[in-house]
Amino acid sequence: MATQKPQKKFLDKFILTLVIACMVLIVTHQINNLVDYNTPEATATQRVTNSNQYVVDGEIKDEDILEDWFTPTPNHNNQNPNN
Amino acid sequence: MIKKDQIKTKKPKDYWNKRAAIFAIVSIIITWIIGYAINNEAPPDCKMVLPSADFCKPLDNDSFEGVIQNEDRTETIVGWASLNEAPGYAGPVKVMVGIDPAGTVLGTYVTSNSETPNYYERIENEKFLEEFIGLPVISPFKIGEEIEAVTRATVTSNAIAEAVRTASYTIAETQLGLEVETIIEPIKFGAPEIAILGLYLVGYIGHRGNFKYKKQVRWLSLIIGMVYLGFIFNIPVTVANFTSLLLGYFPNWRTNLYWFFLMGGILFVSTVDNKNPYCQWFCPFGAAQECLGAIGGARLWSPGKSIRRNLEWIQRGLAFGAIILGLLMRNPGFSSFEIFGNLFSFTGSWPQWVILVIVLLLSLFIKRPWCNYLCPIDPIMDLVLASHRWIKQEFRKIWQLKNLKKNS
Fold first, then answer.
1. Which residue range(s) make up the domain with A45?
2. H-helix or E-strand containing A59?
3. Would you tell me which residues 18-47 of chain B have a C-beta closer than 8 angstroms to some C-beta of chain A?
């Protein structure tokens, strides 16, 4: 009995520490969520009209990632350096 | 007759519970109003979907015309942008679509969403929005045809497709003079709906007073819940579902009937029968913990009355904080901190992964550590059940007083 009591006390403290650690981690997760929450701008991906450029995450890029998908459209683009 | 003062002195625990419940309900109402007042969105910049436009002219509240100014000061239309929304899993998903004069989708842009961030990340990582680019304006934009849904984010994928379709059709009709066919989603009644109704039926049979095989039926219900609601359909109840209800965000009933069965069933049984039909009977994560507990011979952990009480209040505080955050941001996705997604769809943040490992290890030795000390659903259900009980008690008192007055 005498050896069981300190053992139980230790186990109780150990479990309690883990439970409290989880609670702290939950708060950390919530704070991270708030800080890292993606702004809508980060999700935007567009093609620049009639060019091989795309606006990805708000920046114009030259990647030809979607070239085959498009049918030619009238050229209104004055941003394309190839024009 | 029992006087009010006597009740207070007899039940000090209930005394604080009542006050905390009133405080929680009042705070929720106030936060709802504050959230509504501070989250008035400014209209998004239509150049996000019409990047070649010099500027955009608003046609109405949700439609814009993108133009470039020529050297001779004349204007050329480069396209139109339209804004529309569709119900996602946790709330509306608002999408802006850009269409060029030839009737091709130029760009799509999610201006706001209420989905759980970890799930919405899948949409971004899979570059789902790019799938719409280049499609004709009158495409059906149907998942499974021109568009591939993102695995484990199908409700959000459907919502985006629906919003893109409505916005594109608006431009097709109003600006391009095209005729479009209205697409009505067929009512989906399939395996998830049958599984949920089956679980309620099993729970109803198992709850009956002297049912002989209660233990066995409960295990069956738990395992079906874990396999179907957890691993196969990944639709466990989360705090975000309750925040969605409070915000009045409902998913499309035609395609998400299971959501209405699940949430409606919980609220119906808890108000009519004053019992929690979910947590002990078919919560998938509860079942996973119980399975581990059965392997490890888990026992109920008793850390002492005062520690237990303090942990209970912290658990309530976490649930309360989560709901307040979701209401303040008007985004149920902010509420959710559960680790169900980590176990059932391998999605989650690093703190959630650490929590999952700790909880699963603890489950081997102590009974349902997540449910008893961390889960936000437990305090919410306690609040719902206790409020129901208190309201019933108050009505009974009023009734008794009326009867007394009549008799005297």
1. 40-66
2. strand A59-61
3. 44
Instruction: Tell me the C-alpha distance between B48 and A43, whole Å.
Output: 10
Confidence band (pLDDT; 50, 70, 90) for A51? very low
Name the minimum distance, in Å, from the CA of A23 to any CA of chain B: 7
Asked if B95 and B85 count as a contact pair (C-beta separation under 8 A), the reply is: yes
Q: What is the span of the domain harbouring residue B282?
A: 4-36+188-396
Query: Are A46 and B49 an interchain contact pair (Cβ–Cβ within 8 Å)?
Result: yes
Measured between CB atoms, does B110 come within 8 Å of chain A? yes
Q: Are B163 and B84 in contact (CB under 8 A)?
A: yes
With a threshold of 0.80, does the pTM exceed it?
no
Q: Give the ipTM.
A: 0.80
Within-domain flag for B408: no
Q: Domain tally for chain B?
A: 2
Distance CA A47, CA B105 (A): 9
Which residue in B397, B366, B320, B357 sits closest to B27, CA to CA? B320
Is B312's Cβ below 8 Å from some Cβ in A?
A: no
- A3 band by pLDDT with thresholds 50, 70 and 90: low
**Which chain B positions have a beta carbon within 8 Å of A48's beta carbon?**
51-52
Minimal CA–CA distance to B317: which of B239, B249, B247?
A: B239
Query: Token pair 């139980």 is at which residue?
Result: A8
Q: CA of B14, closest CA in chain A: separation in Å?
A: 25
Across the interface, whether the CB atoms of B325 and A34 are under 8 A apart is answered: yes
CATH code at B115? Answer: 3.90.1010
CB–CB contact A19 B373 (8 Å): yes
pLDDT (tens digit per residue) in B308-346: 999 999 999 999 999 999 999 888 888 889 999 899 988
DSSP string across B106-158: EEEEEEE--S-HHHHHHHHHTTGGGGGTT-BTT----BTTTBPPPTT-HHHHH
